[in-house]
Write a structure and sequence with these properties.
Elements lengths: L1 H6 L4 H8 L8 H6 L1 H6 L13 H20 L3 H22 L3 H23 L14 H49 L6 H69 L10 H30 L6 H22 L1 E5 L4 E3 L3 E8 L13 E8 H8 L10 E4 L2 E3 L1 E3 L4 E14 L15 E11 L4 E8 L4 E3 L5 H14 L12 E3 H16 L7 H12 L6 H5 L2 E3 H5 L10 H22 L8 H8 L6 E6 L7 E8 L4 E6 L4 H4 L4 H7 L5 E2 L3 E2 H5 L11 E2 L2 E2 L1 E5 L14 E2 L2 H14 L9 H6 L1 E5 L1
Parallel strand pairs: 2-11, 14-17, 16-22
Antiparallel strand pairs: 1-3, 3-8, 4-6, 4-9, 5-8, 7-8, 9-10, 12-13, 14-15, 15-16, 17-18, 19-20, 21-23
Keywords: Activator, Coiled coil, Cytoplasm, DNA-binding, Nucleus, Phosphoprotein, SH2 domain, Transcription, Transcription regulation
Protein name: Signal transducer and activator of transcription
Subcellular location: Cytoplasm; Nucleus
Length: 757
């Protein structure tokens, strides 16, 4: 009885809601005196959809009545007298109410317990994480399911009222026919003898008057029944619309937002199964109510009785059609988006799905879906219901697909597996806009009917914005456009409006999400990393995170304007880091071996306090996708921090970072004090064993750097490895040739050692 104890502590509106659960159908006194028994029974074990389980419900009903009778018998004295009478009355009342339909008792008590637990949870603001009656689902899911239960009860209630109305009307028609028969008999009395005619006429007139009085009263009653029923259906439709708003305008929109952020590396948008189950329940209930309204209309046409009900029914019919239209058109969605950076002449796939496809018999005649690519202006015109004259902005191959119904999952979807953008037609660009800032979208269209062609729907849905490229070199800037759009677009926007500037914390969140996803790491960007990025983005020297929280960054600063003194933008530099990390250095970042986001001065300050041979890895300021090694060493005059010219993806395709660090014997400790072999040895290439065959000797490449007045040192103490990289690439060519190495001893000692093993 723990739940009942908590329920009694409810206050205000929650208490009123709890009290409203009880009445003649189930008295609150029964709940109070039998709380422990009620909460201990296996109500959830009975499946209300299976009629064969009715015997379980009957057993529970009989047990409850026995409990009531037993408690009534044990009431003694003056105080127990009234309770004894009440409990005996409740036992008889529950038996007469539920004996013909014991499953309704189970439904009633499940509804009461479910609602009480929801109200208690809401009052304590605690979400259930375990099982039991609440099934461990989030609180908002509980509320949605609770509303569905309310809708089910309301729909069943109107169904019962409709049957009662139908039976009453049928009986009214029978009696009306009887009145017509009496009238016909009165008309035929003229053929009878006068004495008999007078006697029969008096009897018939009496019966006629009585019947007409009854018909008049019953006509008013029928009109009241119709009006009451229409008003109940009006309330049901209002709740249906509210529930649909929660599911379609809140939950489905949130799913679409998660899908959009997943394009930036955010968490997966999650399964559509729960949303589909809700949408299908909505479709079922909307259709049931639509059928009820049509049956009431048929009854009013069958027996016209003047009154306001006819206009109300017209409004109800329009409302329910509007609700189901909104549901069907809103649940035609893109389950798997096309790639947002879309290269011409490249195969891609996408999936569209109708969340109510398993209902309304849509799957009985599977519709065909057509895909078309359109530009931003055409998308705007489409959403304004303006004619686009069937224009497209390009040609997509394999752009038609029939939706398939999957019996096992109950899904109706179309899988476009081999689409390809053959050509694209670009629009005139505005101002400084480049081709990689122009946004397109894939339009998916279909048409189908429901309810035996009663309603025909033409549904459309737009993909997330796509940027079309024709060459891989455009991928970097196209990705910037997509990232900005995914991160900062607002739901319900005009296609494809995004803010021109955003706060620095917002951008940091987007960059961190992208970085973690691309590098496939739980180690994201730290506050120190983000301060470094802010210094680079705003050309600032401040190391205070607070100073950047109120700053904003424009799209131009992000990926139009070059960084001061550089020929690349902020995004191009950051994307270069991502590409380098995910292709070659992912493991080292996850190990914490790469500090990365440091400038040269910060590296020097950190290293000068450490023993000679201590080194760290930082991203190059001057080269896109470059990483450099900085280390401290003794110079004849003073200790200095040296910096190797940056390594890039091309360099690591020749020799890995771990191998290069292993080759350089003057690198001893990874900052702050870790022996380098502990960190990098497991990533090194195993030494080659001697293998001679077909006249070839297998060579081994090693990195060599000389620190004694070498011409590779530049004026700032950096090792210029341009020459090194040229040599390394020559070595790569050499390794492909079936001839003996022809390297001089000087070349070997300067940058690479080619050892014959």
């Amino acid at each position: 009885m723990a739940l009942w104890i908590q329920a009694q502590q409810l206050q205000g509106d929650a208490l009123h809601q709890m009290q409203a659960l009880y009445g003649q159908h189930f008295p609150i006194e029964v709940r109070h005196y039998f709380a422990q028994w009620i909460e201990s029974q296996p109500w959830d074990a009975i499946d209300l959809e299976k009629q064969q389980e009715e015997f379980k419900a009957k057993r529970l009903l009989d047990s409850l009545i026995q409990e009531l009778q037993r408690k009534a018998e044990h009431q003694m004295g003056e105080d127990g007298f009234l309770l004894k009478i009440k409990l005996s009355h409740y036992a008889s009342q529950l038996k007469s109410t539920y004996d013909p339909c014991p499953m309704e008792l189970v439904r009633c008590i499940k509804h009461i317990l479910y609602t009480e637990q929801r109200l208690v949870q809401e009052a304590s603001n605690v979400s259930t994480s375990g099982g039991g009656l609440m099934d461990g689902t989030p609180q908002k899911y509980q509320q949605i399911n609770q509303v569905f239960e309310e809708l089910r009860v309301m729909t069943q209630d109107t169904e019962n009222d409709l049957r009662k109305l139908q039976h009453s009307q049928e009986y009214f028609i029978i009696q009306y026919q009887e009145s017509l028969r009496i009238q016909a008999q009165l008309s035929s009395l003229s053929n009878l003898p006068p004495a008999e005619r007078v006697q029969r006429e008096a009897s018939l007139q009496s019966r006629k008057a009585t019947l007409e009085a009854w018909l008049t009263r019953e006509a008013n009653t029928l009109q009241e029944y119709r009006q009451d029923l229409a008003e109940k259906q009006q309330r049901t439709l209002a709740l249906l619309r509210k529930q649909q708003t929660v599911i379609v305008d809140d939950e489905l929109i949130q799913w679409k937002r998660r899908q959009q952020l997943a394009g930036n590396g955010g968490p997966s948008e999650g399964s559509l199964d729960i949303l589909q189950s809700w949408c299908e329940k909505l479709a079922d209930m909307i259709w049931q109510n639509r059928q009820q309204i049509r049956r009431v209309e048929h009854l009013t046409q069958q027996l016209p009785i003047p009154g306001p009900t006819e206009e109300l029914l017209k409004d109800l019919n329009a409302t329910v059609t509007d609700i189901i239209s909104a549901l069907v058109t809103s649940t035609f969605i893109i389950e798997k988006q096309p790639p947002q950076v879309l290269k011409t002449q490249t195969k891609f796939a996408t999936t569209v799905r109708l969340l109510v496809g398993g209902k309304l018999n849509v799957h009985m005649n599977p519709p065909q879906v057509k895909a078309t690519i359109i530009n931003e202006q055409q998308a705007k015109a489409l959403l304004k219901n303006e004619s686009t004259r069937n224009d497209s902005s390009g040609e997509i191959l394999n752009n038609n697909c029939v939706m398939e119904y999957h019996q096992a999952t109950g899904t109706l979807s179309a899988h476009f597996r081999n689409m390809s953008l053959k050509r694209i037609k670009r629009s005139d660009r505005r101002g400084a806009e480049s081709v990689t800032e122009e946004k397109f979208t894939v339009l998916f269209e279909s048409q189908f009917s429901v309810g035996g062609n009663e309603l025909v729907f033409h549904v459309k849905t737009l993909s997330l914005p796509v940027v079309v490229i024709v060459h891989g070199s455009q991928d970097n800037n196209a990705t910037a456009t997509v990232l900005w759009d995914n991160a900062f677009s607002e739901p319900g926007r005009v296609p494809f409006a995004v803010p021109d500037k955003v706060s620095w914390p917002q951008l940091c969140e987007a960059l961190n999400m992208k970085y973690k996803a691309e590098v496939q790491s739980d180690r994201g960007l730290s506050e120190e990393n983000l301060v470094f990025l802010a210094q680079k983005a705003f050309s600032s020297s401040s190391s205070s995170p607070e100073e950047y929280r109120s700053m904003t960054m424009t799209w131009s600063q992000f990926n139009r304007e070059s960084l001061p003194g550089r020929n690349f933008t902020f995004w191009q530099w950051f994307d270069g880091v991502i590409e380098l990390m995910k292709k070659h250095l992912k493991a080292h970042w996850n190990d914490g071996a790469i500090l990365g986001f440091l400038n040269k001065q910060q590296a020097q300050d950190m290293l000068l306090s450490k023993p000679n041979g201590t080194f760290l890895l930082r991203f190059s300021d001057s080269e896109i996708g470059g990483i450099t090694i900085a280390w401290v060493a003794e110079n004849p005059n003073k200790r200095m921090v040296w910096n190797l010219m940056p390594f890039t993806t091309k360099d690591f395709s020749i020799r890995s970072l771990a191998d290069r660090i292993s080759d350089l014997n003057h690198l001893l400790f990874l900052y702050p004090n870790q022996p380098k072999d502990e960190i990098f040895s497991r990533y090194c290439t195993p030494p080659n064993s001697k293998a001679v065959g077909d006249g070839y000797v297998k060579p081994e490449i090693k990195q060599v750097v000389k620190v004694d007045s070498d011409p590779m040192l530049d004026a700032e103490g950096e090792f210029d490895l341009d020459e090194t990289m040229d040599m390394a690439r020559q070595v790569e060519e050499f390794l492909r040739q079936p001839s003996e190495p022809q390297w001089t001893g000087q070349e070997q000692s300067r940058v690479l050692m080619i050892t014959l093993v």
